[in-house]
Give the backbone structure.
Amino acid sequence: MSVTTAENRVAVATQRQLIWWRFKKHKLALISGIIVILFYVTSIFADTIAYTEPFDTQAARSYIPPQPIHWFDANGHFHPTVSALKGKRDPRTFKLSYAPDASEPRDVTLFAHGYEYNLFGLIPTDIHLLGVTDGKPQDALFLLGTDQLGRDVFSRLMVATRTSLSIGLIGVIMSLVLGVLIGGLSGLYGGWVDVVIQRIIEILRSIPTIPLWLGLAAAVPNSWSPQQVYFAITLIISLIGWTELARVVRGRFLALREEDFITAAVLCGASQMRIIFKHMVPSFLSHIIAAVSLALPAMIISETTLSFLGLGLRPPAISWGVLLQDAQNLQTLALAPWLLVVAIPVIVVILAFNFLGDGLRDAADPYG
Amino acid sequence: MADPILSVQSLNTHFFADEGTIRAVDGVSFDLYAGRTLGIVGESGCGKSVTARSILRIVERPGRIVSGSIILRRSNNTIVDLTTLPTDGAQMRAIRGGEIGLVFQEPMSSLSAFHTIGNQLQEAVLLHDPIGKKAARTKAIDLLAMVGIPRPSQRVDSYSFELSGGLRQRVMIAMALAAEPHILIADEPTTALDVTTQAQILDLIRRIQQERNLAVMLITHDMGVIAETADDVVVMYLGKEVERGPVDSTFHAPKHPYTRALLRSIPSVLAEPRARLATITGSIPHPFARPAGCPFNPRCPERMAVCETTVPLQYDVGHNQATACHLYAA
Amino acid sequence: MTRILDVRALRKHFPIRRGLLSRIAGHVRAVDDVSFTIESGETLSLVGESGCGKTTTSRCILRAIKPTSGEIRFRTESGTEIDLAPLEARQLRPLRRQMQMIFQDPFSSLNPRMTIAEIIGEPLLVNGVIDSTARTRRVEELLELVQLPSAYLNRYPHAFSGGQRQRIGIARALALNPSLVVADEPVSALDVSVQAQIVNLMLDLQDRLGIAFLFVAHDLSVVKHVSHRVAVMYAGRIVEIAPTRALFETPRHPYTEALLSAVPVPDPRRRSQRIVLEGDVADPSDLPQGCHFHPRCRYATEACKTETPPLTEITPGHSVRCIRATELTLTGVPAQ
């Protein structure tokens, strides 16, 4: 491309396009962005990707190790199968236990029937991504094994992803609204409004977070339903999280107030509303997006930690923290190490958000 | 005239960016002599700062010296080509400060806000001459006195933010001279200062030059400053040296069309009130859109056909003047 | 010639707050009794070094900040004279279109997220020109005035050089046909050859449109080319005000003399003896008693340390703030 056409392209590029071009250069951030999107797509289709009812307990199926899919049959053709379970009664203890029997392969198919659920919460269906041609998936598919109560870990992991990621998102939106509003007031008006708000923020931030969560979470009554507890936990997390965003917003407002183009707008008679929404908000939107993408992982970790400690979501609700609770003691880990696989998506998504946030921030403000 | 203390020959420093290569310094040659001031003048993008940084081997990535030589005659009379030395080696570090001092444009960002100016001066002294902290402190106070800072034994414990712009720049000059170099490079030393402070600083540099027989290289965009302080001038445009010569001939008998146009377009207190200024048509080209042939040709009032295709060489025009213009190719 | 601006005894003091409860420990007397007038179609330059108060003065006049005391009498289009100093934001808004500003930094004076058409069109939109065709037409007119191609309408500021951005800033300032434009160091951030273009543009625009300019600058060379009259400021006060030729050729204040002699002249044959001032520019939060300039003045006497000289007219149109003005003969810079 000649220099002049390149120049032209850059000249008419909006700020948003420039930011996108800068962002694309960060390969790591780009990949992280794709990973984050994949995670959220997974959580939208959580029930579709799961194949066994997440609450379906079956003591006899307890602690089955992960059963891989055999992709090729004895002749080398592409023919995915899993081994079905065979019940066996131990002659000495009379305990019935199931173990996979390689002599009885079940064909694995896509878009098979399984348990019923509501796609997007609205459309009743029973189609799942994976299934077996004959028999029930809960007897044959154990891609990540089962837990102590015989529940399929893979299916529970899908549902847990949905819960954890949505708490993160909802919590961040609530923090965002609070943060932008309060931070905006603080930065725009300055003076004693700013002083009061800043001191409140400082007090909130100086309270140690874990004891604060413990206190607030312990105050949630046992009698509340999982949905109510879910809402309460989200509220608790976002009530602390807004302070960081408020500081970012306030900082941007303060910096922007001094810019010459703001003075120019004032001097031509623009109203306060116009200055805020036409001049200031677009200027800091990209910073907010970057701050939000860095606040999300914090929210996710908060919820996971609280639930892991037994103070957040509690069974029968499913989230990453709740699943990790099952892996809390050494005995369990010795018996069923595959329960720890839940930690992997947590680590991956936190890292991905961090890289994404860094990339966004660098792209939005290369000089900041 | 005696031998030059520093001789730059056909220096080429290029920046290798994703979008293309910028020829920031494109074949520049000049000499520095003890006791004389060379002024390097030009507008933005002409490469004058990069030239200074090339000499001191502190060009930032993605730039590097591509070809040419920088011959330095050291204080022990050995000759060394600075382009052959490793940028981070012991020799180059000894030369920076020890043989060549550098004064930057922005005194605020060049001085540490966390150390007293005395500490910084001591460090500059001790890096080149380990005489011990006490002796270094005495020397620091002497340096402050030399640059005209009042009450130096008290000021030595001040922080940079406690000083005004003019005083800070004096401290910068003291630091540059702490290890007693023979060459002083000043990169826009007065651009950020008020005009009365500028007069003080230029006066100071001139006085120190006379006392120590320094070779001074003064980089600026201000033709007035050049006229006041330089003995010889190099005019740069888009990385190329377009004219070189003694300051009087350059100002009163400029040869290159750019120099002539530049001199006509600068505002002056000697002008008639509300006099219009002569302008140079067009604007400085984007570094990626360098014109073929002579870089000035699209804006040159005396452009010929050859100017659009062939890069002019340096032509000698007598009286120690040289210019890169086809008008003088004879 | 009608008087378009009449500033009387303008003062702007900033409180210095110290301590936990932000107690007021003193004042920075940034603007300390400034008076001057501007006729319509004329350029008055306000010259001085850093901290002299010229930028604060210019912002007070446009009511970007509120002065501590004094009058800013502005003649509106309808012919009435209004004092802007005590007005509230609501009362100022309808008057704002008659006085505009050109800023120093071409990079921060344009909103990077708006196209050139939107930037120049904003004053029109805000002041009632809702019809977008009418706005576009006017924006194209303005681009032509500042010699920029109208093809640039949909580009963003980052596509333009410093000089071009200043032209855009000038187009924006002219959008509403103001009678007064305050230009705050409009060329100091530009290359020399670009400065020349902008200076010429401003001279042309003044001839064509009859705008009055308050030109704030520290560069006396540029000031010589644009001004009808010049006011020199030091430590918050005007120390001398005179027509351009008179100020440059026969200055009557020692500071003006020192300032003129400090300006580097682009002629190596004129390396005459310069007056090099001792000491630093006066600190507006800690000003000397009597004449603010006396600690650095080579002509100072005992009286200068105690007496505060008033701004006195010594020849018609030429006023000086110096008790020794009539007895001193100072060196100026004659035109060539």
Notes: The longest helix of chain A spans residues 153-189. Chain A touches chain B at residues 3-4, 6-7 (CB under 8 Å).
